[in-house]
Amino acid sequence: MNGSRVIKNYLNGLFMKRIMADKGWTKEEATRHLENFVNCGKKISVSQYLKDL
């Protein structure tokens, strides 16, 4: 699965919609954070990555 598909799947999920609402992010901001997550190379979950932002 490529990075853009992963990002699209996360953006359309309820988890990411809740994160966007809680943090006040636009879809573009959320996309940028997810791109950084996909490219960070760390073996952590997306929730762990986003928790510290």
Describe what this molecule looks like in 3D.
The protein has one domain. It is 74% helix and 0% strand. The chain has helices at 3-11, 14-23, 27-40, 46-51.
Brief rundown of the structure:
With 53 residues, the protein is an all-alpha fold. The chain is built from 4 helices and no strands.
Question: Rough shape?
Answer: globular
Give the count of structural domains.
1
Radius of gyration: 10 Å
Helix content: over 70%
| Largest beta-sheet details | none
Could you name the ranges where pLDDT drops below 50 across 5 or more consecutive residues?
none
SSE topology string: HHHH
The fraction of residues in strands falls at under 5%
Q: Give the N-terminus to C-terminus distance in angstroms.
A: 25 Å
Q: How large is the count of helical segments?
A: 4
| SS-derived structural category | mainly alpha
DSSP summary, beta strand count: 0
Q: Give average pLDDT, whole number.
A: 90
Chain-wise SSE layout:
Elements lengths: L2 H9 L2 H10 L3 H14 L5 H6 L2
Helix pairs in contact: 1-3
Keyword list:
53 residues, 0% strand, mainly alpha
